[in-house]
Design brief:
Length: 143
């Protein structure tokens, strides 16, 4: 049974990407996202495919694999796929479900107007992407 808007809002509110987003905005986002289920071993996104959406994991874990190399593990609350939406480029890696995974999917044509209306989401996305770039570059913050 599909989740109600209120259930979706509760799930979205726990996602870092939507931190600081107002309740009315979360309700708008909830109406745009679709719930998608994957089985263990399914490819959620494939390296080299054109990206047409952003994904947010609700339950289950997945791994990010590029050219056969494991890069990262993802779990509930993690989002991925933003880069391909922003620059309309092919996916940089595969994301493969380790176990049954439920995601919210947000289509690129819905995400981009949303970023204009809710700049806080763009700011959160920049934080997330910059931390990924730093970790890939091996430039962890030194206190």
């Amino acid at each position: 049974m599909p989740a109600s808007t209120q259930e979706k809002v509760a799930q979205l509110a726990r996602v870092q990407l939507f931190g600081g987003v107002s309740r009315p905005a979360l309700e708008r986002i909830a109406e745009l996202v679709g719930e998608i289920d994957f089985s263990a071993g399914d490819y959620i996104v494939r390296q080299g495919q054109l990206g047409n959406g952003l994904y947010i994991i609700l339950s289950g874990t997945a791994r990010v694999v590029r050219s056969g190399e494991d890069l990262a593990r993802l779990g509930p609350g993690d989002s991925f796929g933003e880069l391909a939406v922003i620059d309309r480029s092919p996916r940089m890696a595969n994301v493969i479900a380790d176990e049954p995974v439920t995601c919210f999917g947000l289509a690129s044509w819905d995400l981009l107007p949303l970023l204009e209306k809710e700049p806080i989401i763009a700011v959160n996305m920049l934080r997330e992407l910059s931390s990924r770039v730093r970790s890939l570059a091996g430039m962890h913050h030194r206190h």
